[in-house]
Write a structure and sequence with these properties.
With 344 residues, this protein is of the alpha+beta class. Helix content is 24%, strand content 18%.
Length: 344
């Protein structure tokens, strides 16, 4: 994010973390001091934002017959001038991340149905939500590494509560049409023949122009021996090495990666895998989506210690009441090379 033109004194912080993860870096830039200091209330909110019933909304006590209510905050320039209003600065930073937006009349609307604020100049994929209270969504994170224990909790919650929403699709004839199915055994460090009914993770990533090691007819026997991948580890791109490490950290044994589980110089083997690619991903326990870089050499930020730096935009509008900008997966993926890839 370029904050060079915003120059704020950010009390509405932009905490630097990686997507979904802890990182601990705080960006402090400076916004020009507001010109009308009398408009800033003792709460740290301006005369406009102090009229937004944050506490009532936070506690679930706001009574309004309408499904939505809006407040006009003015232009982006107006927000920047109100440099000591925490909520205005949160909105300014959120809007300032995008180019080509209509910022002449910025409105924030509370939608009671989805329990969130939305900005009229942003897509519906970006919302402002409570970090605390009745409608709390999301969490503040710290540290430069993913916590596998937290991911395990999410998976356990999904398996316990989402069985109807996330059912395992039937295999039907796909299992028969898949002539040979292989997985990476992350503990034995080799590729093994397996059943598609095994419990495994899958990697979805961008190959790019990286000249990396791949499974072929000539190295297949070596790769399928215990520790067979160790001999080629320096030729595996970082994204693949990180995926193997993360799956091991998760306590899972198997991982599917196209370049190592399909014999790349065998057209029939590749064809049989490509034809049931949807089934392979559907049957995985979870899929690791590597979207942060242009190719397979980028790695998975957060798998290794201090390997990620990302940001969260948060603010405190009153003691104990905090807000966070939440971006849906689609909006995060839209500008990436991953989003423009052909497959996997």
């Amino acid at each position: 994010m370029c904050l060079g033109n915003l120059r704020p004194t950010l009390k509405a912080v932009v905490s630097c973390h990686d997507p979904h993860c802890p990182a601990g870096l705080l960006i402090s830039t400076s916004i020009p001091p507001h010109r009308n200091s009398s408009c800033i209330m003792s709460s740290g909110l301006c005369s406009i934002c102090v009229t937004i019933p944050f506490k009532e909304l936070h506690d679930g006590n706001y009574e309004n017959d309408e499904n939505e209510e809006s407040w006009s905050l003015g232009t982006l320039a107006d927000l920047l001038l109100r440099g000591e209003c925490d909520f205005c600065q949160l909105v300014a930073v959120t809007v300032g991340e995008k180019t080509g937006l209509d910022t002449d009349n910025i409105k924030v609307t509370w939608y009671s149905g989805s329990q969130c604020f939305q900005l009229n100049c942003m897509t519906s994929g970006t919302t402002i939500r409570f970090l605390t209270g009745t409608y709390a969504v999301g969490r503040e994170v710290s540290g430069g590494q993913v916590d596998p224990a937290q991911v395990k909790k999410w998976l356990e919650m999904c398996q316990a509560a989402h069985t109807e929403d996330c059912p395992s699709p039937p295999l039907d004839s796909h299992e028969v049409s898949l002539g040979s199915f292989r997985l990476i055994d992350v503990n034995r460090q080799c590729v093994v023949d397996a059943s598609i009914r095994s419990t495994y993770a899958a990697l979805s990533y961008v190959w790019g122009q990286v000249n990396s090691f791949r499974l072929t007819s000539s190295n297949k026997d070596d790769v399928m021996r215990t520790d067979g991948l160790c001999a080629f580890s320096d030729r595996l791109p970082l994204t693949i090495r990180d995926a193997i490490l993360f799956v091991r950290q998760m306590g899972l044994q198997y991982l599917w990666i196209d370049s190592l589980c399909l014999v790349q110089d065998d057209p029939e083997d590749v064809k049989s895998g490509v034809e049931v690619m949807d089934t392979i991903y559907e049957q995985s326990l979870f899929t690791i989506l590597a979207a942060s870089g242009p190719d397979a050499s980028h790695g998975l930020p957060g798998v290794r210690s201090n390997s990620r730096k990302a940001r969260q935009s948060t603010c405190q509008v009153s003691p104990g009441i905090r807000l966070i900008v939440v971006r849906e997966m689609e909006s995060l993926l839209k500008p990436t090379v991953y989003n423009r890839r052909a497959w996997t």
